[in-house]
Specification:
- The complex is a heterodimer of chains A (158) and B (181).
- Chain A is built from six helices and no strands.
- By secondary structure, chain A is an all-alpha fold.
- In chain A, helix 2 packs across helix 3.
- The radius of gyration of chain A is 36 Å and the shape is elongated.
- Chain B is of the alpha/beta class and 181 residues long.
- Chain B has five helices and seven strands; from the N terminus they run H-E-E-E-H-E-H-E-H-E-E-H.
- In chain B, strands 2-1-5-4-3-6-7 form a seven-stranded mixed sheet.
- In chain B, strand 6 and strand 7 form a beta hairpin.
- The chains are: A mainly alpha (158), B alpha/beta (181).
- At the A-B interface, helix 3, helix 4 and helix 5 of A face helix 1 and helix 4 of B.
């Protein structure tokens, strides 16, 4: 390997390392944590709004509670668990998977499975070959057609 | 002739629909005023609030061993005014017994709250939940909301919305009967 290639290789490695270093996630500040946690909690007096997005007084109070809990050094799970203990799983905008409301996560997959089963059943019914007539019946019909052809009668005349 | 898988699929769809209808029927039968999730069945959170009459603080701890009714209200809350006569009557009925009423003012100024209790004949102890921490600890959705705490300190039930006399008396008598047992 020539010297120039080594230099280029080192430069590339250094460049990659620099990009990776600059793109690393910055440590989350307490304010960002409060915003993230409150955006995952439901405002209890609103329709479909998070605590972070709601201007309601109770949401503002809940926001302050989360800010205090974060300042106290509580973990995300501890804060979420406190809200769930007081208001049930409903208060979390994305219901936890390991709970009754977590069954909601399965609903799209269940709906997809039912839809696929119905589509498959419909396609099978369309593609199913017609049942074969019994051989004796076929032979009898052939014999009749031959007889009628011999007499040169219309097929529907009996 | 019906194929076995088609039959199974039809039965499956019928079972799924029956299950859905059953769930809906059970959900509609539930009393929307009686939400069982959250704090019901758990020990009532201790709290201390400033009394509206300025006579110090009001603490839940002081009611331990007694049947306690905690009512969240505000002066701006129209349904609170609607339920207030029932609360007054039931409070008078039990005031000499081992039943305690506590009013917690929610999202309101103390001045307005004090005016409200004077105007509406509220004579049981009332305190102000200035920062909403008590309401949060009890899982209050909106007012009026009433909690029934047994002598053991556990929240036995809650009522969301304006409460009537019968519901109050029934809940209190059930808890008093538990104390006697």
């Amino acid at each position: 390997m020539t010297r120039s290639r080594i230099v280029i290789l080192i430069a590339l490695v250094a460049l990659t390392a620099a990009i990776a270093w600059s793109a690393r996630p910055a440590p989350e500040t307490n304010a960002q944590r409060v915003d993230r946690i409150t955006s995952e909690l439901r405002c209890v007096v609103c329709q479909g709004l998070s605590v972070k997005d709601s201007p309601a007084e109770s949401a503002r109070q809940m926001y302050a509670i989360v800010r205090q809990r974060v300042a106290e050094g509580r973990s995300d799970d501890q804060i979420r668990d406190e809200f769930r203990a007081n208001y049930g799983d409903w208060v979390v905008l994305a219901p936890p998977v390991a709970s009754w409301s977590g069954l909601l996560w399965l609903a799209p997959f269940a709906a997809l499975a039912v839809g696929l089963a119905l589509a498959w059943a419909w396609m099978r019914s369309r593609a199913a070959p017609l049942p074969e007539a019994p051989a004796a019946e076929v032979a009898k019909l052939r014999e009749r057609v031959a007889r009628e052809e011999a007499l040169d009668l219309p097929a529907d005349a009996t | 002739m019906t194929r076995p898988w088609a039959r199974a699929l039809r039965i499956g769809v019928v079972i799924a629909m029956a299950a859905l209808v059953t769930v809906l029927i059970l959900a509609f039968r539930r009393d929307p005023h009686d939400i069982r999730t959250g704090t019901v069945g758990k020990p009532a959170a201790a709290f201390s609030v400033q009394r509206l009459d300025g006579a110090g603080s009001l603490q839940l701890e002081d009611t331990r061993g007694k049947v306690t009714v905690v009512n969240f209200f505000a002066s701006w809350c129209i349904p609170c005014k609607e339920e207030n006569p029932a609360l007054v009557r039931v409070y008078e009925r039990y005031r000499s017994s081992n039943v305690v009423f506590i009013g917690v003012l929610y999202q309101d100024s103390r001045e307005s709250g004090l005016q409200y209790v004077r105007d509406n004949g509220v004579t049981w102890p009332t305190g102000s939940d200035d920062d909403g921490r008590v309401a949060f600890a009890y899982g209050v959705f909106g007012i009026p909301e009433t909690y029934f705490i047994g002598a053991d300190g556990v929240i036995a039930g809650r009522h969301i919305g304006p409460i009537d006399e019968t519901t109050l008396v029934t809940a209190i008598d059930e808890l008093r009967a538990q104390v006697k047992r």
